Amino acid sequence: MASHPIPVIFLLIATVLPAITLGKEFIVGDQFGWTIGFDYKTWTAGKEFHVGDKLVFRYPVGVHNVFRVNGTDFKNCTVPPGSKSLTTGNDTIMLATPGRKWYLCDVGKHCENGQKLFITVEPAVEVAPAPSMALSPAQALPAYYSSKGAKDTIYQLSSITIVAIVTLIMI
User: Fold this and answer.
1) Whole-number pLDDT of residue 159
2) Among candidates 107, 43, 39, 46, which has minimal Cα distance to 79?
3) CA separation for the pair 14, 3 (Å, rounded)
4) Model pLDDT, residue 132
């Protein structure tokens, strides 16, 4: 019997897709961007940052920069010698590890005037595994006749249809 590539691809997607962590993208300062005269402490209030999320620092090129520093340098608005600055005006930082993160601009007195950002990065949010698509007739029929509503019934029937299609492809 010949092997069909479509079922193999489907199984790979069904197995790998739920494990992918989908991160959020945060534009630092929202529509104001990375600038002086903005309260980044207020901006972070109520936001949750997780491993896999991205920070995007947007600012006019040549006017600002971004340095990642430690807590002491953040407090003192200093940049350690040899630190690498981000200067593209559209700098994206992937939050790769949990913990405290500090960023600042070292142009002029920008940091002293509030152009600095402190966040705490939490572990990655795991995507819940996809529900099993295989339903026995005993599971599907009671859902169809129940009073749970049309949404549950449509989900159950869709699941059965998908399982039937996959089964036909594999034959």
Assistant:
1) 54
2) 107
3) 18
4) 55
